[in-house]
Design brief:
AcylCoA_DH/oxidase_NM_dom_sf; 4-stranded antiparallel sheet; Acyl-CoA dehydrogenase family protein; alpha+beta; Butyryl-Coa Dehydrogenase, subunit A, domain 1; flavoprotein; Butyryl-CoA Dehydrogenase, subunit A, domain 3; Butyryl-CoA Dehydrogenase, subunit A, domain 2; AcylCoA_DH/ox_N_sf
Length: about 400
Amino acid sequence: MAASPKLPAFDPADPLGIDDLLEPEDLAVRDTVRGWAADRVLPHIADWYEKGELPGIRELARELGGIGALGMSLEGYGCAGASAVQYGLACLELEAADSGIRSLVSVQGSLAMYAIHHFGSEEQKEAWLPRMAAGEVIGCFGLTEPDHGSDPAHMRTRAKRDAGGDWVLNGRKMWITNGSVAGVAVVWAQTEEGIRGFVVPTDSTGFSAPEIKHKWSLRASVTSELVLDDVRLPADAVLPEVSGLRGPLSCLSHARYGIVWGSMGAARSSFEAAVEYAKSREQFGRPIGGFQLTQAKLADMAVELHKGILLAHHLGRRMDVGRLRPEQVSFGKLNNVREAIDICRTARTILGANGISLEYPVMRHATNLESVLTYEGTVEMHQLVLGKALTGLDAFR
């Protein structure tokens, strides 16, 4: 009888052996982004978060462009042309540092650049995408409004043609990541032809982007309102290849895919902090990691964390072969963000009072994820997307 092959050692950091599913190129992307985040973000993020600022964001954007992280899954125009799995791994590593950093990259690549790449004219692509891929120009995405978040079909922002053919935009957008540092905004507005997207240089007369302050979540991120008061744009500012909600919703689906991975990065960071703390913190004469209740918490956290990563990987492979449906993205976003928050909260209980300190990443990740839970589709909206897919019945209205 042939001898049984020797089993690999159990790896606490990868208990399911998910790394075996990754190609060398995947691992190289992951390690590059992880190394950049460890060098440029982790030493400073607690201070940035406490102060509610992201200093040097333009320099960070150029560095992210330098490692190919901006618009990395897009082809051409200076973009890396990476696989969906590689983009997901990058999102995981960025959010393991902080959700605000992943949001910067996600809004740049999966929303602003994606919209121009998929729906823009060749002139628009050539004008903006190479500079955005390099991080020389930061972009933002104007869809959500003060009174219309989950119901973008009833947005109030309007674009009208004047007698000379120019477009004139009026309206407000709210909770816009990168808004006050962006050089270009992709803005969605109602027109006589339906909802259309516009490429808006932020130095246009009538455009302003006051920054939103007093946030208790995504504090190391630039969040703004967009104000459009008679912003005049040439006729060719409109994205020519799409009309209706299909445009912005397809962008959001791509961005939500990144969240499926990114939320697991926040969860992993909190889980790792809890494991290390449990092995070193002593109570009743021994490390708390040696008590059954603590081990039960750690085991449950590990199960949900690595199930979530496996789900993200599965969705990435489907995206890479063109078979990922929006309902499946909703499945991933709904599950992984909810589980990530639960992992962070459980980690906080293991750390006890230290769990609320910025000396550890747990509370920072937990509060960030409260925003991730509701942006780009609330829990309820993704539940209804899945409910409709499962029953064939529309419960949105």
